[in-house]
Amino acid sequence: MTIAGCHLPMPSVRKSPKKPLVAENLFTALHIGASSVSIMVAERAADGTLTPVDFLEKPAPVARDIFRSSHISPSTTERVVSIIKGYQKSLAELGLDPHGVTRAVATNILSEAANHDTFMNRIRIACGLRISTIDDGEMTRLIYLKTRRRLLSLPAMRKDTTLVLHVGPGNTRALLFQNGLISRYTSYRMGTHRTREAVDGSHAEGPTMLRVIREHAYGNLAQIRFDFSDVKIDGLVIIGYEIQSVAPALTKSSQACSLKHLRQFTADAATFSDVELVKRFQLDYQTAEALIPALEINLAIAETLKLQEVHIPTSEYEQGLLHDLLISQDLTGAFAEEVVRSARILAKRYQSDPSHGEHVGNLCARFFNSLRDLHQLTPHDGLLLQVAAILHEVGTYVSPRAHHKHSEYLILNSEVFGLNRLDVTLVALVARYHRHSGPRLDHPSYAALSTEDRIRVCKLAALLRVADALERTHVQRVENMEIHRDSGKLRIRLPGLADAAVERLAMDSKADLFEQVFGLHVVIDEDN
Questions:
Q1: CATH architecture, domain defined by 155-310
Q2: Which of 64, 297, 343, 360 is CA-nearest to residue 165?
């Protein structure tokens, strides 16, 4: 299986390439994680696949600082700066621009640091890099990529109900796959480093520490039990930095780890000091500190769901993350289908007319594809337009009156799998502008966007309004459509529709934004 031209199986790192590297084919990903700073250089082949050629990782206690004091300490900041400068020297030795890192990102828990702006500014000034924070949307994309690789190695689990669990430094995310497709996504404020710092003051050790961790997680465990009480989970796939660091000791190849073995391993590990964990499993100290919470949280969830075994990837977590960062923003195909499925689930929750939303989405796709040279938007924008079409009338769940405003509110306060906060904001605004007023600068969410993103909203909303006008009756009267441009007009012919009076009337009130944005007057021609 290939996503965005990149094969899912994670290639091994080539430290000493056999042939000379071409700078134009090299891409770099840098990640400031919870407990380390890492960088990968990957080479893109002619078929688009990425092969890692170098990987470096050094520890830095970012999460410890955040969850201990809500601030990143000056010493940790300078350590991160020093590590990045060292990496930049390595890039220069490869003939790469040390300031031209393809993707430079930081863990999403960075936003919880009171001085995160100061931290980011220091890196920008010292290293000349703009660091973006991974948000929930991209994190789900990254988990999706890891999950697809794991499901490919476990064919039987594609047909069953599989829960994929990612216990991160600050939060736990759960993706439910049924017959290989995502049917549910949930998130919980429970993570390895967050838990470690929360229970550290108890000074508990051994079995007592495990009990304290379990008690601290009680509320989230109860919520997980409730959230998945209506499904029978056949398999649990566990991913995460700490637990994958000890995966070779827990499982062999693709074999499952029994809960009995995981329970005994966790009990044994709890008796070791952090220093002993470092020596026994070749970990850095920051990872060792979070290992026991990672083990106990995963064990507790598996027991809560009454499972007898778990599957833990033995691949390197961080290397896979950096590889996926280079392709996650360009995912198409199966991933886009998962995004659309998530939008449909949300529309169903708010009892939106599915036939209407789907038909408007199909009409939007026709306009989007036929007018590519006019709007010059990306395939990702086309995906956002389809999602907005599916969700544009969810506001009727609140009230038919001013439902476009209610749609904006509901979408802004919902999650669509795989879409980041900016994407969700754009979808919400495009849905809002499907009727009545077009975009205005006295609308706060619209005004807060960059000029480029405001233009995207205007273009997408213009297309949605025209498509929605053709579905004014909500009975899918328009099945065929021919689109032509001439003399400052966008001419639409509707073969098979003898009387387009309703659609023409709706177009008179909705096509104004299209004319303002694209300079074309929309005309529905008679079907002669």
A1: 2-Layer Sandwich (3.30)
A2: 297
